[in-house]
Design a protein that fits this description.
By secondary structure, this protein is of the alpha/beta class. It contains six helices and 14 strands. A hairpin with a 2-residue loop joins strand 2 and strand 3.
Length: 269
């Protein structure tokens, strides 16, 4: 199973930084029995691996070699490859850059590497058989992509950063078979690659007879791409630690049995 991580964005809301925003220290992990900062991108990697991904495709811009240097060729037992998005041209363009490695027989998960969300095993709730979105409740859905569904969980519309959104549930990640990935890629090309946001492409997919479902399995979601979001993420992690949920720290928390940790990460005894 592939996990696609679009990490080519400029991160202008958090500049100036001396490194890619996906490496922003958020929370901590254990490194040789010493607590060290944890890069925000590690949270998504952990969640994808918990969800079954054994191959990761980072989509990076030409100037983000620090991501390659940080993660290398594997993480937690999952192999990592990198593809390049030459210019920042939106989420759809970034996701479909991975078409060079994703096959029709694969399963694909996509998440955003500058987010922290819980529960960390929520991707397991998504179906392998069709396009499904992992949903989270938020207070200000107009800042995200709000997902409107019918009573059976079938998605009727995704409202992209829309004022007065009709739903307080937003998507934080999604999953689909490789054949659906190819169908969406062809649709995007047929629409002249005009869709910057994945939500508008999915709306066109639904209008053409496609189906997508929403799964309300998330309970907390923070976008770390702003200074306020960064502070909110630190608060969320501290609260989880106090609650003793087992999900408060970085990749040491809830790591699947039998999977190897990166060489520089050890489980606390």
């Amino acid at each position: 199973m592939w996990g696609i991580i679009p990490a080519a964005g400029r991160g202008s809301r958090m500049q100036p930084l001396a490194f890619s925003k996906e490496l922003l220290p958020v929370g901590s992990r254990i490194d040789h029995n010493i607590e060290r900062p944890c890069a925000v991108g590690e949270y998504l990697l952990e969640r994808m691996i918990l969800g079954g991904a054994d191959k990761i495709c980072f989509v990076i811009s030409p100037g983000k070699s620090d991501i390659l240097e940080y993660f290398g060729d594997s993480y937690g037992g999952a192999r990592i490859v990198y593809v390049v998005q030459p210019i920042a041209a939106g989420l759809c363009d970034a996701v479909f850059r991975a078409s060079c490695v994703v096959g029709a027989g694969d399963t694909v998960m996509v998440g955003l590497p500058d987010t922290v969300w819980f529960p960390n095993s929520a991707l397991r709730k998504l179906s392998d058989d069709g396009l499904s979105f992992l949903l989270f409740p938020v207070e200000r859905p107009e800042f995200f992509d709000a997902v409107v569904m019918d009573g059976s969980g079938r998605i009727r519309e995704i409202q992209v950063k829309q004022a007065g959104a009709a739903s307080r549930w937003i998507w934080g990640a999604f999953k689909m078979p490789g054949l659906t990935f190819e169908t969406l890629h062809r649709l995007w090309l047929a629409r002249g690659q005009s869709d910057e946001y994945f939500g508008t492409l999915v709306n066109a997919y639904i209008a053409a007879g496609g189906e997508a479902t929403g799964v309300k399995a998330g309970d907390a979601y923070v976008d770390v791409g702003t200074l306020n979001g960064y502070h909110a993420a630190m608060t969320l992690l501290a609260e989880r630690r106090r609650q003793g949920t087992g999900e408060s720290g970085g990749p040491r928390m809830g790591w699947p049995a039998g999977r190897a940790l990166p060489a520089n990460v050890q489980v606390a005894s």
